Write the structure tokens for this entry.
Amino acid sequence: MGDLFSDKLELNGVAVCAGALDRPAQEQMVKDLRLLAGNAPFRQYQTPGGRKMSVRMSAAGALGWVTDRSGYRYDPHQPDGRDWPEIPEGVLAVWRRFSGVNRIPDSCLVNFYGKGAKMGMHQDRDEADTKWPVVSISLGDDALFRVGSAEPRGPTKSVWLKSGDVAVLSGEGRMVYHGIDRIRFGSSDLLPDGGRLNVTLRVAG
Ligand code: MD3
Ligand code: FE
């Protein structure tokens, strides 16, 4: 797990590998994600409570995470009935390098943060078995990432996630509350129109 050539920061059990992906690797991943979005468009979902999320989401793999008035879930089909596209090879390579496990992920969620988008504090617990790690890749604009504990109202710490950073959520860190308070829109030139992409890999089913 981890890498000799990147800074590793530990935040309430969450490992952040700063600078894990170099610029060419980031550019290749953006290309792969553009192709992915051609087959699974970014959608703005509604929460079970009927609010629109500010983050737009796409996905790949056997199971894609979706939400609507009937609940949060992993679904084998897109809202339009199509299968999700395959997880890009370069994304799987990041999982192999950082996850520390031999299982292959079956779910790749792609979040897009435009100007003003954020994600409230939550736990990731829609997966069938939460013993498996989550690997997260940040691309584009800087994001203020907040990490709490496994309790909903525990103390929190914050760190700016930058383009090319990889976060590994395993063990203690897997069930912590976390969220994105805001992005610094336009802080990176990786995406020509600004914004931030976050790719999360999971064993969901
Ligand atoms: C800590 N995404 O997709 S990435 C999510 O930047 C999500 O889009 C955020 O939270 C984003 O569920 C945060 C870092 C991250 C991802 C998954 C985690 C942190 C996590 C799972 C458990 C604990
Ligand atoms: Fe999450």
Observations:
- The longest strand covers residues 107-113.
- The pocket of MD3 (ligand 1) is lined by residues 14, 109, 111, 119, 124, 134, 136, 143, 167, 169, 173-174, 176, 178, 180, 198, 200 (CB under 6 Å).
